[in-house]
């Protein structure tokens, strides 16, 4: 198992508060790895550090052996590690297709000046972006809504739009932030299939933060469990389900989960 | 040195009051009140009219300034800001509206009070002189004391009364306040009136020292913006700190830099930019974005 | 051509015909020569407003354009009067200088958003006015006056631009110059908005976090856009100074910065040509109300407030309806 992404002794402190303490784990190429844990366990913070939206206090994160922590988000995105957000983070007044087109800008061959003057390469780029957007939306089953304004979409589609925007950048690693939150069983199952096909057909390594236990158990190759900022377990779904510490952590904070 | 300190306290107390009103309106309604300086000027002219023209006792004239501005603020909120906030797709619309109101109040001041510089008779005579190291006219000391008293009263109001609690709840989270049973529309109006009243009160206080004229509105708003940025927008303690800091910077600038021309504000602006680059939310503001 | 549809091309042709042929004809017939000055001012203010509009395109409310217009006016005036430059060289220099100042100031302040950016740019306007009063090179409150009119330019003996000083009627010449500058500005703006940079700006306007997650270097684009925006401000200001043949610290002040912003908002932020329309309506409206004498400001502000109250999405929204774009 070759490690694509390595989290090495990562610690994050906000003032006196420790959000993540000495976390280490690897993500293998082409796997689906979930990070779970009760509320306040530090999952989101960990995600933000991997995508460089926030710096680490100590420790480092490596991608193919190269440090990607404490950079700028757009640089990490350009290396192929792209995160998605929860549903409110979208381009509100763009259509689905426009969002997916703009997300492809990293692949532009023409320069900004070329676009300004309308060079031949720029025109080819624009055509290619459009074709790829259509293809991607079809792959995600979103062709029917490609001309809808993002702000008019229902919740479930917004999540898919987020994934479409992330995929349009042609990532190597996709970080999904609670892709199943607020979905009913059928929607969740469809999303599980979608995420799996992203990995299987597009060769994208997927890492996700999630609360929905059945979905996580269904989709993940491996799971990392955080509690109070510490990593308490890692392993396959069946190993995690039988782990004493994990059961204790979840029982101990059952009240928190109701709030979700 | 003592002189600079005293000037700083004096300026800072006035400035803090101006910033308090601005920040209160901002916290409650997310409105940047461009017309704040004009409200200050109107407050000055009302006190000038009652005290300077008609010989009404100063304290009564001050009360009239407060009442006038409170009514004006309430009307502006009810008939302009509230409907625009409800009807507009963009929150920036309120900024335009505030700019329009600033123009309108300027025009109103010009028509009603004219464009001349107006002053009033001194409220108390005499100068406090400590060994020529600290010289301060008594009226300035009195005005400064009144300003500090008003700030304390305002904080008391916000902290210990039902209205204050409702306003604070509203400032923190509009939706939550509504759920808790706060009458959002009513308290928005009260808050706006209160903010405008503070501007009017400072105007009334300062007319006894600097006088008042039409052109003071814009620059006063600008100073208020700077204070709010220094302290952090929408935070009461931030407005007070912002006022004190700007007051001191100005006092020091005028004392130290006067021979280099009027570059105090250039230097203050550069420091403000550097400060905001490090701490965009200001001293007391909560981090955002 | 340039991605215009036939309908758009006809529209552009009518517009060009109107301003280059129609307006001079009407003015010639009616004898209202003062309209040249009004329309020239509109064109120049529309250039500066275009900059403000562009800053809004990355989600920043810019109330500092007066500062850059003033900087541009002073740079051009100083270069022409003190260094003996040709005005036509000082014009781009003024734009570039304003852009450089924008880069320096933008590095710290472009991190601010919303109301905070609006406030600090407004403060900037006041500070630049105060600085112009204080510095020796700007000549304090006296300003720089009797700036010579633009000289002629010729290349290899072929006259490209005639000498304005030798003309009988500079009004028409300034009108044409201002219109050409305005058209170039808006053509550039239109191309920019509809090119990749424009799309990236739009993504930033709508969500900076998401934009950076797809690899957009938001800090870089913010600076570039703010520099272009201030370049427009500098050009507009410099041209204004040349027409007035004088620059004072009060040539552009806080009220002007606010007006530039109002031009954009009232024209409609969703439309490239919005600021042009906004400038025309606001400036002409102000001019028409001149008859009212001391009530001019009062009526103007009441109309302004009424428009904001009842048409919160701008004048062009009347035609295109809510939610329209471009």
3D structure, described in words:
The complex is a heterotrimer of chains A (260), B (289) and C (326). With 260 residues, chain A is of the alpha/beta class. Chain A folds into 2 domains: 1-80 and 173-260, Rossmann fold (3-Layer(aba) Sandwich), CATH 3.40.50.300; 88-170, no CATH class. Chain A is built from 11 helices and 10 strands. In chain A, strand 4 (58-63) and strand 5 (66-67) form a beta hairpin. In chain A, helix 3 packs across helix 5 (120-139). Chain A is globular. Mean pLDDT of chain A is 88; it is low at 255-260. Chain B has a two-stranded antiparallel ribbon with strand order 1-2. The N and C termini of chain B lie far apart (41 Å). In chain B, a hairpin with a 3-residue loop joins strand 1 (127-130) and strand 2. Chain B has one domain (2-278): Orthogonal Bundle (ABC transporter involved in vitamin B12 uptake, BtuC). With 289 residues, chain B is mainly alpha-helical. Chain B has helices at residues 2-29, 36-53, 58-87, 93-113, 138-160, 162-172, 174-179, 184-210, 217-231, 236-257, 264-278; strands spanning 127-130, 134-137. Chain C is mainly α and 326 residues long. Chain C folds into 2 domains: 1-32, no CATH class; 33-253, no CATH class. Helix content of chain C is 69%, strand content 2%. Chain C has helices at residues 6-30, 34-57, 65-81, 87-109, 114-134, 170-193, 196-206, 208-213, 218-244, 254-267, 274-288, 296-310, 317-320, and strands at residues 153-155, 158-161. In chain C, strands 1-2 form a two-stranded antiparallel sheet. The longest helix of chain C is centred in the C-terminal third of the chain and has 27 residues, at 218-244. Chain C is globular. Mean pLDDT of chain C is 88; it is low at 320-326. Classes of the chains: A alpha/beta (260), B mainly alpha (289), C mainly alpha (326).
The oligomeric status of these chains comes to heterotrimer
Largest sheet of chain B: 2 strands, antiparallel
Helix tally of chain B? Answer: 11
Regarding CATH, which class of the largest domain in chain A? Alpha Beta
Q: How many beta-strand segments of chain B?
A: 2
- Mean of pLDDT of chain A: 88
Strand order across the largest sheet of chain B? 1-2
Helix/strand-derived category of chain B reads: mainly alpha
Protein name (chain C): Amino acid/amide ABC transporter membrane protein 2, HAAT family
Keywords (chain C): Cell membrane, Membrane, Transmembrane, Transmembrane helix
Organism (chain C): Roseovarius marisflavi
InterPro entries (chain C): ABC_transp_permease, LivM-like
């Amino acid at each position: 198992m070759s490690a694509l992404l390595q989290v090495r002794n990562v610690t994050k402190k906000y003032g006196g508060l420790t959000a993540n303490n000495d976390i280490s784990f690897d993500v293998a190429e082409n796997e689906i790895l979930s990070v779970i844990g009760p509320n306040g366990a530090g999952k989101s913070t960990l995600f933000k550090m991997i995508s460089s939206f926030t710096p680490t206090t100590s420790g480092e994160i490596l991608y193919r052996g190269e440090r990607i922590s404490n950079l700028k988000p757009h640089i990490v995105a350009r290396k192929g590690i792209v995160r998605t957000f929860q549903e409110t983070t979208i381009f509100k007044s763009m259509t689905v297709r426009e969002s997916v087109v703009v997300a492809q800008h990293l692949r532009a061959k023409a320069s900004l000046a070329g676009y300004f003057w309308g060079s031949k390469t720029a025109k080819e780029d624009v055509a290619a972006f459009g074709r790829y957007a259509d293809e991607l939306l079809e792959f995600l089953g979103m062709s029917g809504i490609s001309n809808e304004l993002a702000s008019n979409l229902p919740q479930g589609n917004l999540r898919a739009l987020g994934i479409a925007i992330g995929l349009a950048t042609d990532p190597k690693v996709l970080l999904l932030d609670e892709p199943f939150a607020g979905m009913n069983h059928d929607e969740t199952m469809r999303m599980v299939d979608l995420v799996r096909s992203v990995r299987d057909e597009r060769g994208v390594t997927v890492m996700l933060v999630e609360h929905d236990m059945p979905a996580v158990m269904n989709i993940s190759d491996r799971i990392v469990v955080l509690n109070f900022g510490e990593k308490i377990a890692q392993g396959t779904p069946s190993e995690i389900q039988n782990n004493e510490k994990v059961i204790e952590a979840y029982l101990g904070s059952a009240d928190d989960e109701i709030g979700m | 040195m003592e002189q600079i300190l005293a000037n700083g306290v004096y300026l800072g107390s006035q400035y803090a009051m101006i910033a308090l009103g601005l920040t209160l309106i901002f916290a409650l309604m997310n409105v940047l009140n461009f017309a704040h300086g004009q409200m200050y000027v109107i407050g000055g002219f009302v006190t000038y009219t009652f005290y300077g023209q008609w010989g009404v006792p100063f304290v009564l004239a001050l009360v009239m300034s407060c009442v006038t501005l409170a009514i004006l603020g309430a009307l502006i909120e009810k008939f302009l800001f509230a409907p625009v906030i409800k009807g507009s797709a963009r929150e920036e619309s309120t900024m335009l509206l505030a700019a329009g109101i600033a123009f309108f109040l300027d025009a109103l001041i010009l028509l009603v009070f004219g464009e001349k510089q107006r002053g009033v008779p001194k409220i108390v005579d005499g100068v406090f002189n400590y060994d020529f190291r600290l010289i301060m006219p008594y009226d300035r000391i009195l005005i400064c004391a009144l300003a500090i008293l008003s700030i304390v009263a305002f904080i008391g109001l916000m902290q210990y009364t039902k209205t204050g609690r409702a306003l604070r709840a509203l400032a923190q989270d509009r939706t939550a306040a509504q759920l808790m049973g706060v009458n959002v529309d009513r308290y928005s109006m009260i808050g706006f009136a209160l903010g405008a009243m503070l501007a009017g009160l400072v105007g009334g206080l300062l007319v006894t020292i600097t006088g008042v004229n039409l052109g003071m509105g814009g620059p006063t708003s600008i100073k208020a913006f700077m204070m709010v940025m220094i302290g952090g927008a929408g935070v009461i303690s931030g407005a007070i700190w912002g006022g004190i800091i700007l007051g001191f910077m100005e006092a020091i600038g005028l004392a130290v830099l006067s021979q280099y021309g009027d570059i105090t504000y250039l230097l203050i602006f550069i420091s403000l930019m550097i400060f905001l680059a490090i701490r965009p939310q200001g001293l007391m503001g909560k981090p955002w974005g | 051509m340039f991605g215009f549809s036939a309908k758009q091309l006809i529209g552009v042709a009518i517009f060009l015909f109107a301003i280059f042929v129609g307006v001079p004809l009407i003015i010639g017939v009616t004898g209202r020569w003062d309209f040249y000055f009004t329309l020239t001012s509109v064109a120049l203010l529309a250039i500066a407003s275009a900059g403000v509009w562009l800053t809004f395109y990355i989600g920043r409310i810019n109330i500092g354009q007066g500062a850059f217009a003033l900087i541009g006016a002073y740079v051009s005036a100083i270069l022409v009067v003190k260094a003996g430059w040709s005005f036509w060289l000082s014009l781009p220099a003024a734009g570039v200088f304003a852009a450089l100042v924008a880069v320096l100031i933008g590095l710290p302040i472009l991190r601010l958003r919303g109301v905070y950016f609006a406030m600090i740019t407004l403060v900037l306007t006041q500070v630049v006015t105060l600085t112009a009063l204080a510095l020796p090179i700007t000549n304090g409150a006296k300003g720089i006056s009797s700036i010579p009119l633009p000289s002629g330019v010729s290349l290899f003996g072929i006259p490209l631009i005639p000498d304005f000083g030798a003309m009988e009627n500079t009004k028409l010449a300034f009108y044409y110059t201002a219109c050409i500058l305005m058209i170039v500005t808006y053509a550039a703006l239109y191309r920019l908005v509809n090119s990749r940079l424009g799309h990236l700006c739009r993504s930033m306007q709508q969500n900076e976090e998401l934009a950076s997650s797809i690899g957009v270097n938001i800090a870089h684009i913010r600076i570039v856009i703010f520099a272009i925006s201030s370049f427009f401000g500098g050009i507009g200001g410099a041209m204004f100074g040349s027409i007035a043949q004088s620059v004072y610290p009060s040539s552009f002040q806080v009220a002007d910065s606010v007006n530039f912003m109002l031009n954009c908002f009232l024209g409609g932020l969703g439309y490239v040509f919005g600021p042009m329309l906004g400038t025309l309506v606001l400036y002409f409206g102000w001019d028409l109300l001149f008859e009212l004498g001391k009530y001019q400001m009062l009526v103007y502000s009441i109309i302004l407030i009424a428009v904001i109250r009842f048409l919160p999405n701008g004048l062009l929204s009347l035609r295109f309806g809510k939610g329209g774009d471009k």
